[in-house]
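Exercise 7. Predict the structure of TetR/AcrR family transcriptional regulator from Wenzhouxiangella sediminis.
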Amino acid sequence: MGTQERKAREFAAREDLFLDTARQLILSDGLLSLTMARVAAACDYATGTLYQHFSSKEDLLLALSTRMAGDRVALFCRAAAFDGATRDRMFALSVADVLFAKQCPEHFRLAQYVFTEAVWSATSDARRQAALEGSQPMCEEVRSIIRQAVADGDLPDRGLRNLDLGVGPWTLCLGMHTLVHADGLLSFYDVNRPYGLLLQHIEFLLNGLGWKPLVDDISASHVAAKVERLCREVFSDVCDHQGLEDLLSDPGHISQSPI
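Solution. The predicted structure, encoded as tokens:
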């Protein structure tokens, strides 16, 4: 191994250490208490060394969010590859997002923070570009499914571009993640099993778009049956760990952290 290659590997390993440590500090002590000095000290490095990797705390947080999103992208790709009708594959994308939210709830809390204008504008161009490129595969999977649905006659295009037709499910998922992680909000209004409701509303939305085959029975049991099939055929390793009931549970089943 040449000197340059060894240095590159050491740099990458050190960056992973910084990110792992930052995540653990956030989980244990909260996002607002995180400082560059604390991360560096916990890793036994000088603060200046940490700044060789990240230009600011905001830069570090965006890098952490981007890395955590990699598992989300992987679940999306599995959902998109599901051997089913285009409508079922679009539904599977929402199930993948719910599974990831259950698996890694801190990602959505962190993402909500880093994509605020104050934080986003304080990050480096390189980190912003990496974050956007990291999510690109999810957009491509959505485009691909919608393109096929329109071509097959499953979905009328309504004069919209492919990705424009996918904005509805995207906003439903993002909005529900926001509500779930607003501590105490859903319980105050007595809204139970939010992710089960989300998946029902996804089905209502797909009906509204005219996405065939239209579904007459959009009950909780209908959603549970579809999720059970996806857990069996696509996400068996993830669902075995969390269980079908946990997937469709109320927010009290989601582990809270101080992030």
